[in-house]
Amino acid sequence: MADYILGIESSCDDTSAAVLRDGFLLSNVIASQQVHKDFGGVVPELASRAHEQNIVPVVSQALDKAGIKASDLTAIAFTRGPGLLGSLLVGTSFAKAMGIALDIPIIMVNHLQGHILAGFVDQEGKENHHPAFPYLCLLVSGGNSQIVRVDSPLEYTILGQTIDDAVGEAFDKCSKMMGLGYPGGPVIDRLAKEGDPKRFQFAKPHIPGLDYSFSGVKTSLLYFVRDEIAKDPDFIEKNKEDLCASFQKVLIDILMDKLIKAARQTGIKEVTIGGGVSANSGLRARVEAEGKKRGWNTYLPEFKFTTDNAAMIAVAGWFRYKAGERTPLDVAPVSRIADY
């Protein structure tokens, strides 16, 4: 008998539900919130209210697209954290209520593990390639920047992580600083394609080991732009493509230097990337180029699985369900998770 897993993702500003049948994706529905663009970032209270409005129709649509009824479900996987507490509370509460109503188990999932395992979402009619264990995952998003060694779907070791800002946060804040809009990552990526990445030089921090730091890069750009605007008020508009290309290059250089070092130290040649920043075209090109140069087997997630989505939560939950994990109904969402 087939296992049908419903995944629910509500960690930030996207409400998503997905259905898997024995690991194969049947549906993946996402409701995005546009209201936050007016504020230049996610407003937690508005996000949680929107989740309350969206979760019932999103889950209903996911079941309809999968061609099943709620009574067909085997288990419900949901994001416990990390994320915005109000948003997580909506998804967690819904998963509990639905699990009780259907008398089926619920399975909590670490949002970051979802990103790490996104490449294991199989799709009918496609060649589904998965990394072999152990593999390295460069996890890069608006809230996290880590290098993770993955020994199995349930075994993770953080080899390095940011000591201050996440790389996605650096993209967003510097885009806002230059008046380019929110979210900043896609805007900077688009403009960078038309610019010269060697035109401007920004500070590159030297952090020992495999940890990252991105606050200094942001400060370097801030001071540079401030000084240039004092000379020419139109400096940003005249040079935005080169600014974006140069800024993006230094961020990618920092990420890749550590990933190369991690691969060298561990001897692991299976390499993946995950998280929202894994959609960045410059990063994807560099990972592929370094992979060919260094003999890595590289796995880049499809763009639809780079952002927050319930398919990745469902597949992580499916692995945990098969391993016999079940989550008690008194579990509470958490905004931060220190480890895996």
Mean pLDDT: 93
Return the CATH architecture of the largest domain.
2-Layer Sandwich
Terminal-residue CA separation:
31 Å
Give a count of the beta strands, DSSP E runs of length 2 or more.
Answer: 10
The rough form would be described as globular
β-strand amount: 15-25%
Number of domains: 2
Q: What is the CATH first-level class name of the largest domain?
A: Alpha Beta
Features:
5-stranded mixed β-sheet, single chain, Nucleotidyltransferase, domain 5, globular, 340 residues, 9 helices, 42% helix, alpha/beta
Structural write-up:
The protein is 42% helix and 18% strand. The protein is globular and about 65 Å long. The two termini are 31 Å apart.
Topology:
Layout: E1 4-9, E2 15-21, E3 24-31, H1 44-66, E4 75-81, H2 85-102, E5 106-110, H3 111-116, E6 135-140, E7 145-152, E8 155-161, H4 167-177, H5 184-192, H6 215-231, H7 235-266, E9 270-274, H8 281-294, E10 297-299, H9 310-322
Parallel strand pairs: 1-4, 4-5, 6-9, 9-10
Antiparallel strand pairs: 1-2, 2-3, 6-7, 7-8
Short synopsis of the structure:
The protein is α/β, with parallel strands linked by helices and 340 residues long. The chain has 9 helices and 10 strands.
